[in-house]
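Figure 3 (text version): structure tokens given as input.
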């Protein structure tokens, strides 16, 4: 697994497909890399995204911009979830928990967060996990409560 040799091969692929930076790799498919002789390189990584991160460590890789398939279990990592939700927060001008009431489930899905939301019973649960430093009040955020939320006596008034 000589990264220098991998780099030489990927540089040739980049030249052929006119790749100038990370975003341009969205135009290069897994199949393209295999057809250019990169199949054995890709087998060493869980995904093409992981390969690119290793081969080109000098770049700031953004999974959303490159639109490449993420490595298996990528969205199970709360740090990756946080990066995505921070971008969503920036786009929708979210400064704190109350502001999330302006961001719908559909907004999150449209921004690429569907795989994250599938891991939680509700968006409220996702936000509680992703941003544990905040005090979350279901009444203030007006988000859908988690399944069985009201069955817990502590949540009843």
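Below: residues designed for each position.
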């Amino acid at each position: 697994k000589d990264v220098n040799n991998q780099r030489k091969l990927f540089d040739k692929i980049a030249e052929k497909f006119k790749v100038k930076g990370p975003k341009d790799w969205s135009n290069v498919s897994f199949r393209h890399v295999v057809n250019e002789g990169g199949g054995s390189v890709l087998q060493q990584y869980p995904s093409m995204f992981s390969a690119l991160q290793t081969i080109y460590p000098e770049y700031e890789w953004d999974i959303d911009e490159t639109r490449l398939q993420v490595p298996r279990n990528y969205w199970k990592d709360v740090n990756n979830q946080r990066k995505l939700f921070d971008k969503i927060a920036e786009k929708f001008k979210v400064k704190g928990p109350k502001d999330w009431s302006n961001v719908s489930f559909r907004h999150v899905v449209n921004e690429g967060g569907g795989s994250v939301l599938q891991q939680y019973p509700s968006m409220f649960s996702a936000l509680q996990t992703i941003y544990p430093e905040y005090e979350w009040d279901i009444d203030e955020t007006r988000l859908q409560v988690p399944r069985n939320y009201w069955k817990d006596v502590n949540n009843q008034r």
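Residues 85 and 113 are 8 Å apart (CA to CA).
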